[in-house]
Amino acid sequence: MSFEKYYSKDGYFKHGFQTEFASLKHPKEIKVYHPFYESARGYIFGKLNGFSTLRLGYGAQKMLVGKTDKGSVAIGLHYSGGYSNGFLKPVYLEVIRQEPGTDRTYLSTERYDPDQHNGGNIYGRASWLTGFNELAIQPGLFVKGGATFEYSVTEEEVALIETGIIVDFFPEQVPIMASEQNLNFFTTLYISIHFGKRWN
Description:
Mean pLDDT: 90
Low-confidence stretches: none
Largest sheet: 7 strands, antiparallel
Shape: elongated
Helix content: under 10%
Order of helices and strands: EEEEEEEEEEEE
Strand order of the largest sheet: 1-2-5-6-10-11-12
């Protein structure tokens, strides 16, 4: 999700503020399912924390090629940077437990612990809302750059395709996985479609 507010004097150069919220993943994340329970939710084995970031930045857009008529495309560059506020949310799982002294089993919602939980006793992931009261913040920085291709018909419309790269940097490694090398750099290649209205 993103929100942008830009200011322009001549239509060829804009500058302003932007806010984005995004989920960042470790490249080794693989969703698995319990082999014997079809109704079980999938989960990422070995994942300690979910990680998202709220980017607060300042940037600019510069038009390289303007429109010659209503059916043409304007091409521009964009670049920005700023603060990347990371949020760590612990992973909770539904774990199969046995009642003492019986053959009966039950499901227990537990925070993932690689020393206790394995593919045999993990039923599936718990509710996505579980663990929000244990959020931790990991501050960092981001830079973003790329190109825009605007094809809107009128000045009031917004219709463009944006593509580019975002790099998030965190001074400390982000503890996403239990047994994999965790990262402090996250690189995102993206393409997005924007549509809407302009307001003065």
